[in-house]
Amino acid sequence: MTQQTHSTSSVSNDDEIDLSKLLGHLVDGKWWIIGFTALFAAMGVAFALLATPIYKADALIQVEQKEGGMSSLLGEGASDLFASDSSASTEIELIRSRMVLGKTVDKYNLTTVAEPNYFPMVGKGLARLTGNQNSIAISRFEIPEGYDSQPFRLNVDADGQYSLFNSDDVRVLQGQVGKAAMDDGFHLFVADLKADKGDTFTLSKISRLRAIRAMQDRLSVSERGKQTGILSLSYQGEDKARIEKVLSDIAQNYFMQNVKRDAAEAEKSLAFLQGHLPGVKAELTTAENKLNKFRQENDSVDLSMEAKASLDTMLSVEKQLNELTFKESELAQKFTKEHPAYLSLLDKRKTLLGEKKRVEAQTQKLPKTQREVLRLRRDVEVNQAIYVQLLNKVQELNIMKASTVGNVRIIDDAQTYELPVKPKKPLIAVIATLLGGMIGVGIVLLKAAFNRGVENPDDIEAIGLPVYASVPLSSMQQDIEKKRQKKEIRTASESLLASVNPADLSIEALRGLRTSLHFAMMESANNVLMFSGPSPGIGKSFVSANMAGVLAKSGQRVLVIDSDMRKGFLHHQFSLKADQGLSDCLAGKSEREAVIHHQVLENLDVLTRGQVPPNPSELLMHPRFKALLEWASEQYDIVIIDTPPILAVTDAAIVGAHAGTTLLVGRFGENPVKEIEVTKQRFEQAGVNVKGFVLNGVVRKASSTYGGNYGYYNYSYQ
């Protein structure tokens, strides 16, 4: 149980270390994060200011419950059959249909697209902010066949004149504002133009279908609430006045088509009834003439009570059958014969026909004269009832047609909001700022993930290489480098950090290295100290030169040798020239005393690299180099050799064979642990024992557990 608890605690501690390191990376990369955040915030604000504002106009329409146009004429029983609710989705699709939107496209000539030309990206926004926007109003634009969708350029000339050029930059038309211009199939009427001389516009003619689709993209229709029948229409665009007019026209077009649709239904029924009126009237006249003639011939025979009762019953049956005929004509337009309503009507007709046959059978028992009078009066009464009913229906339909208002009502007319709906400037600025911050954080973490450079001495000691010193990065040394590039430094006392600022943290770290070396070199074969490293640019020359300066100030006689005869940099540390040096001595061209710079600083001599030879490795293997080191070891208290990187060339391995103490130098955050381990193995393969490691250029970083722990070095004298 204890072991399990300990394991859990270890995992927890590892997580805390990871989180703290992650936070440390963010703190170290704070300027990256701040920079990207500020950059994206500025871009977001600029976009919000320069982006074209989009305004919104809205309107409100009510769709009421709709009844069939003939339901009121067919009685209460049939009205429920014809009642219909027009769903909101159906009405929405009607509003967005080409039938409705096409009329608006034609009215406002939306197939013609005219836009002013500005400087890309920012020109339009700057023109709007400065109030120098160009505008053009085109009432008519027609082009010959073959020019569809081709852009045209309209150049503004002096005094309201303009010229129209095609895509091949050929002038096809020239005209004046307020007057129609026509030439070779082109027809253009510019109603208004606000622009300076030399400004240009892009004109294009799009298809009617494409213009309708563009309107559909800008038009939004939705139902407010659930099954309320209240439709909200909104339309977006750049021009406040134009979108208000367009949306108002769309609402009016929808309203008018709804009224016309209901009136058309009444018209259709009216035409049907008026077509039957002449025939019914003719039949009524014929029936009346026959009855009158029969009465004249038979001296006006009166009907008995029984005959009158039969006549009344027959008239009632005929009236009901006639009404069923009207109903059947309406039902046939809406339903099939298998529909329950249609089947009910057929059953009712069958019953009435049965009743009619029964009455006719009764009349057959009457005398012949009364039967004939009954038949003739029945024909007159039936035709008269039909005729009167048709006249009533015609009058009702005329009234309905005249008073048709449809089931649509415009509640709120189109109106444009004062403020634009897009872009949402505060939201864009906030999103851009957050995006910049996230990108900055991502870059910092990405750099940290790909940066395998060693930052913790414990990682180096884990491969069996003790860390003798961690040298902080010196801002004073960076100033010295800048002055050296400007050739403002001429002496070693001005060039060497150990001489310029002995209290610098880097020099204090080298003093600690001096103490460690005092005990490490007691068991060495000689007093030759070599500094090497895995790669160039890690500060070996800086460590070698300033270590020599620290040792010289302690009273020891020191000789510094630059064995990098290819790209040696040590002479710059002392403001010396490399014309005569080690290569000349090893090649036998000069004596060693002649090439050594004596007393560069007190107790400090320097041997530079000399002329760049074609065979540096062979010169280092020459006996003269061994003899030089033996002589120097006797003449000086300590000899420091600066070598080229071992992973680049083999020179360091050759020099290491003569050195009693070998130290590796690595750069904080640049040299990976694996690279340092390979460097150590390379020396061991050559028989050179590496004593320790110097971590150079240590930077105070929140993500490094060691980088921030050299603050105690500030305990130094002024």
Task: Give a structural overview.
The chain has 718 residues and is α/β, with parallel strands linked by helices. 51% of the residues lie in helices and 18% in strands. Strand 7 and strand 8 form a beta hairpin. It is elongated, with a radius of gyration of 53 Å. The model is unreliable at 1-17, 68-85 and 706-718 (pLDDT under 50).
Percent helix, as a range, is 40-55%
Low-confidence stretches: 1-17, 68-85, 706-718
Q: How many strand elements?
A: 22
In spatial order, strands of the major sheet run 15-22-21-16-20-17-19-18
Tell the overall outline.
elongated
Helical element count?
A: 25
Mean pLDDT: 82
Helix-strand blueprint:
Elements: H1 2-28, H2 30-50, E1 55-63, E2 66-67, H3 76-82, E3 83-84, H4 88-95, H5 98-107, E4 112-116, H6 123-130, E5 135-142, E6 152-156, E7 161-165, E8 171-176, E9 180-183, E10 186-194, E11 200-205, H7 208-218, E12 219-223, E13 230-237, H8 240-297, H9 305-334, H10 340-363, H11 368-402, E14 408-416, H12 425-450, H13 457-461, E15 467-472, H14 475-485, H15 492-495, H16 497-500, H17 505-520, E16 528-532, H18 540-553, E17 558-562, H19 570-573, H20 582-586, H21 592-595, E18 597-601, E19 604-607, H22 616-620, H23 623-635, E20 638-642, H24 651-656, E21 661-667, H25 673-685, E22 690-698
Parallel strand pairs: 15-22, 16-20, 16-21, 17-19, 17-20, 21-22
Antiparallel strand pairs: 1-13, 1-14, 2-3, 4-11, 5-10, 6-7, 6-11, 7-8, 9-10, 12-13, 18-19
List key phrases describing it.
718 residues; alpha/beta; 8-stranded mixed β-sheet; 5-stranded antiparallel β-sheet; 18% strand; elongated
